[in-house]
Amino acid sequence: MMFHKGKRLLIAALALSFPLLAGSAAAQDKGLISIIVNDTSNPYWFTEGKVARETAEELGYEANVTSHNGDTNTESNQIDTAITNQAEAIILDPANADGSIGAVRKAVDAGIPVFIINAEINQQGLAEAQLVSNNAQGAALGAQQWAQYFDGDVKYVELFGAPSDNNAATRSNGYETVLSQYPNLTRVASEVANWDRTQGYNKMQSMLQANPDISGVISGNDEMALGAIAALKEAGRLDDVVVGGFDGSPDAVDAVKAGEMAYTVLQPVAIFSRRAVELADQHIQSGETGLDSEKQLFDCMLITEDNVDQYTSPFVLEQ
């Protein structure tokens, strides 16, 4: 964008004439980074936005965080606002793997680089980078841990995330790949609960009523798992049902400590949110990210009762 280039040239010229003053001004005037996440009422997405904003401010940018709550129209309007505000870069957790492509293209056409975090879009070559958890690796890690809790024939149910998010299918497929190797484990029901605790609670109530003899619940994220735990508690069944989660949220970690959740798979959201902003800064300054591929995978970690005390802050596990 010509305005952006002109602004940078002006700062550079000032730096040559008044190096000390201009250096201070540049540090305060690196522009805006717009951060768009899903739902800040969810601790995972709240941390995602918080870390990205703090990193941007540390690097000398103005930063704002907005949430689309999975709605592509809201997301599109937020992209429009970022364009109007002449953002230097956009950090985006997309609302929909296919439905967000148009919004990303709109930003790119306006000369604003986009850095995708957490959830992918189904098109390569638009975003400068897509930084996501290695969901297949994390799902396999969780499923292997979960399967170890059972002897004999077991019936279980699954809580599935939002179908518009590729992560939901990737995790479910990862679970199936591992659990299909255990002929004693039979999935008797699967329900979409859209990453939401209340929906997890309601869907768990329904599945429990239809399948009162289940012994396990495997969930696509912690919020749905925590909803299931509430329903199982209410039914007096939590002591004999094994629940597994995914995210590594503070509430899930507390549930692991309390013996209510068998484990959670920690996504390194704090790490890749910070990295996305650092890459954005590098691109703003040099025009390049230095990456050899657009998609960057970050391995997940398992939190169980054996290592839960190493969880030092939201979504961080010390090794």
From TrEMBL:
One Pfam family from the record: Peripla_BP_4
CDD domains: PBP1_TmRBP-like
Any Gene Ontology biological process: transmembrane transport
Signal peptide feature range: 1-27
Major localisation: other
Compartment(s) of residence: Cell envelope
This protein's UniProt keywords: Signal
Cellular component GO terms held in the UniProt record: cell envelope
Domain Periplasmic binding protein: 33-288
GO molecular function: carbohydrate binding
Similarity comment: family membership: Belongs to the bacterial solute-binding protein 2 family.
Protein name according to UniProt: Sugar ABC transporter substrate-binding protein
